[in-house]
Specification:
9 helices; six-stranded parallel sheet; nine-stranded mixed sheet; alpha/beta; 2 domains; Rossmann fold; homotetramer; Dihydrodipicolinate Reductase, domain 2; 354 residues
């Protein structure tokens, strides 16, 4: 694959807060990318990212990045509310863009980015990092190739102690991870039709610190996400229950992050009659397999995919559309909370434009 | 305590299915109780419970129990739908009653049992077993004495592989545990005001196999319960988040079931102004203490409490009223599901009577 | 199997201390056995085992058991030092015997029991309980059928807080478990040739509280056992490293006690030459499989095997010879400690007779 | 502290294999150090460490480092066998030295380094990284200030899959970690007097792949170390058992690496008489505390300590002497293995010189 990549892609990182340094480190380490700039409104933060003994340029002026003709792509890691304006400016300057999750803070904005990128023939990639982990990749494949059978439910828990973002609530901060994983694992085909959300701010932070999100799908599939900034223990566990296998992904278990269980409940007999309760219930309780996964940093795969997409003209696994789908669910969650937790229909494509 | 108990309380167990054998074993082992009968419609099941070399009587005729004047109390472990009629018959025969959870399958029925027991001066106890574990007891005390501060959220997960009950769904099967723990831990004072529920039956079992339950309290406290019959892994974890300590109870960790974290997010500064987001956020990240707990079987405490309540005339920790409160929430959950997951008000006391 | 068993085997339990109650409970529950007596020098302890409402007889007079012609077998759960005299008396009275581990406190005594049982045509079974767990059974089978390849090392850790036995040290108390598992897993074929032991009594208890035991085998296989009464955490983990699979048995992990790893280091190339370090090292890092195991109480299998051996005339998996082999290693460990931890040869069969 | 450091210390890293990149990264990140050179016989490896966009120099010629008058200190991360010659050359060129563990491959060599550094007034520091973790630091303090009481035993397990070093066996590869931790935790005062070791090479690698090491101390303290290259699971657990508290350090548990147990066995009564077994045994089974530890990279502390030692003229926590003590035990382990596992006296200081 890397044989096709003639020259490294020149990239600038904009935003040197929490995520920017990780992007910079991976862009430096990746043979397919070349980090030219780190840009932050506070120059000292940009400097800290690259260190003293570096040849990477730093700046506090975004225009330096836009005006540098050598910069082919920009990785945007600024606060969520600024994603759309910064990414638009980059696209308009003819640069490919990788945007940290969430792609934007409204579906309309996210869709606008997609449209502009499409029009300009530029790569717009959403940094849905977890989709590039070996575990999620493996679940995705096991669903896609039918090994797991039909997906029945997804339950995802992402809780820890931390009020990371001042401008967004716990849904917009953490749930993009779970929603992007869900989107990737279910790979095309099924989209949620209704969304219900419950939120709480028991410490008076002014934004939701605890959130519960339920997605109902046409197929009967239910997905539930628990995000929480107030938990003393850190949990990162996603269960993907399907008819033939159930996957449990515990991202904090380095020994075996992924477990595939040959367990489940099967119903046999006449299920169409009035008395379906009489159906024979059979429990499968077979082996568990923890597949060997190649441990590597997911973000390294992200920047490699960015480079490949630019050089080979392919579509990244987590493109702008994926970013839009995630933002649409987040928006619907907000409407559900406003409606006291009632289940709301997920707006059809395009209908969210203002 | 046992010094006050003149003679062991003579008890009959009705129902020798899943829970009855545990009741029988504990009644046999407890010095304050004397097991006289095990009754089941299938006599062989009753026989299996007591074994060959026993002096306990077995019967398939409920009247044998009712008519035995030596029987002072009956432990009811029959299917949930039969609780009310069996318990009523016992009370009317002048016998104290311990009823397996849920106390009844409707709040009206549960309230009727309470009323009859009250009128007759008999003990009506709900077997909310988990309230008698050392861990829950400790959380209850730490909330009651102010050590934990104000409770902010409760998150409880009770999932495993199993379709135990043919006549009830996953809410009525598993959630009584979480609801009774919640009721006991918050001990008086606060009751939920609104309930929302989401359910799924992705395998076509005819009843909900996966359930999510959200309780909103006047105080801003949120409680969330996840019950699931389709999970390949067994989880029994309850987090009680409070302003000064956060308790994490993992009932499957025999080494330290209970962890008390000195962790949290504190807000300081002006929280009343428009710009409360500017408030200073301070993270507490102190030690975790896993208190030494005396490991003992909770059900042994249940039967002891039953005996004490009868002999000393005291009220059991988990009385009929506790059973009523749990059933009320379960009923409200059903109404929420019927309303598409919308949050519904918890019916005020008495209003559920038919 | 149970179809062949005409009538239940009548059994007496002698010793109602720590282990006796477990034996009694399982003998009561097993359809192939009938518990007639529980005997203990302290009658109240025997009574506590069977409870008030029972038809099992209790006695503090061992002769009551010996003289009861209906008693076919005796389960001995007395202090280790008394095993040989009690078991001998039983055998001489024509009764089959199940002896708690260790079979005796010297190899000579253990061999004497084997000889007498052999001569009398009676079953002599050692209660090496762990050999009857589903996990150990599975490892045994996977070694026996070649799935695991050649066993290379065994590392067993059995540590917790507890000074259970006043008359024996930590080796004689805990290591019989590990040694009997080792004996069963390696099933015939290979016996250790040298034993080295290190012991410590850092609290001044008068006996070793911490012990390390190393067994060297002809094949190059090394086995190491760590037993410890002073550990705050309880660990029960045995690793069986073999050329094709490595088994890790964690008896305290109810979710998956047994893990079979397709992992290892393979050497290829010329391994006979002087420069074997040049050999190609290849790491296998394949999947881990946690096989589904039928969870059941091992002691139930023990009493069933006792009954089958008596009725069918078969040899129990853990016969008297197995008990002898374990005691021989324990004796050798004592000699090693006396010799300052030096490795000592395991006495050849028969050579330990006085 | 950093206020005293006038200018960053200029450092060169020699050796860009496994550990060198970590040293380089931390030297770059530390404000008190300035990385000038990365040197490796394979220039491409040196280049990979610093990346393309860097101002750090790379070379495959060690003399470039020695001859650069700006280099004040050298971090040596070459194969163990070359430590002594490289470190000597650095010291003779007037440069301070940080040497990866083990300091040397013989006690005589290690002592020579200490002597030369002493004579030259240069800092000689051994990179015993684990001594700079928050967990080990805390155990060290709790032993030093008496909180833990008298140390009774140490049990350390360091096992995983990996044949990292071609030139040294598993003892020299992994045990320096455990021995340096032991040395630091017991801080002065007590040194081991006897060492016994057992080794195995069941795969025919030509060097020991599994090792067990027992250290006996004057005080009765026993320390045991299990190192293993053939384990499918990774374990990094050290138990420090003391009379008042027992510390369990599980380095792979990010949630709480360190647990302090108020558990133990206390003996009371007459312990001097012949019948000390009659002594009253009391079990303490109090709370467990997992102290809040500041998570930070230990190696960052190492390079900071190096800088402080050079600028402030203080002695590093893990100086050359600490390196010598560790090597002495490793040498004794080799003698024990040659003697068939017999316990050997630890050579007195100086007696190992050739």
């Amino acid at each position: 694959m890397s044989g096709n990549i003639a020259a490294p892609v020149s990239v600038a990182v904009v935003g040197a807060g929490y995520w920017g340094p990780n992007l910079a480190r991976n862009l430096l380490a990746c043979p397919a990318t070349d980090l030219r700039w780190v840009c932050d409104l506070e120059l000292s933060r940009a400097r800290d990212v690259v260190g003293a003994r570096t040849a990477v340029s730093v700046t506090d002026t975004f225009d330096d990045v836009l005006n540098d003709p050598h910069v082919e792509a920009v990785a945007v890691a600024t606060p969520a509310a600024t994603h759309v304006s910064i990414a638009l400016a980059c696209l308009e300057a003819g640069k490919h863009v990788l945007v940290e999750k969430p792609l934007a803070t409204s579906a309309a904005d996210a869709e606008k980015l997609v449209a502009v990128a499409e029009r300009s023939g530029l790569v717009l990639m959403t940094d849905h990092t977890y989709c590039y982990t070996a575990a999620v990749q493996r679940i995705h494949e096991s669903v896609a190739d039918g090994t797991m059978g039909q997906v029945q439910y997804v339950d995802s828990v992402r809780i820890n102690l931390g009020l990371v973002q001042p401008d967004i609530d716990v849904f917009w901060d953490l749930a993009p991870h779970d929603l992007s994983i869900l989107d990737y694992v279910l790979a095309g085909g099924c989209s949620p039709v209704r969304v219900a959300a419950q939120a709480a701010d028991p410490i008076g932070a002014g934004v939701a610190c605890i959130g519960y999100l339920t997605l109902q799908f046409e197929s009967g599939l239910i997905a539930h996400i628990h995000v929480n900034w107030l938990s003393p223990t850190k949990i990162r566990t996603t269960i993907v229950g399907a008819s033939r296998r159930i996957a449990v992904w515990d991202d904090l278990n380095p020994t075996h992050r992924l477990s595939l269980y040959d367990k489940g409940v099967d119903l046999c007999g006449d299920l169409t009659g009035a008395d379906r309760r009489q159906a024979l219930v059979a429990y499968r309780s077979g082996d568990m397999v923890a597949p060997a996964l190649r441990e590597k940093e997911a973000l390294q795969e992200v920047v490699r995919e960015l480079a490949t997409s630019i050089r080979a003209g392919t579509r990244p696994r987590t493109d702008g559309e994926a970013g839009v789908r995630v933002v649409r669910v987040l928006e619907a969650a907000g409407r559900s909370i406003d409606a006291g937790g009632a289940s709301v229909a997920l707006a059809a494509e395009g209908s969210t434009e203002r």
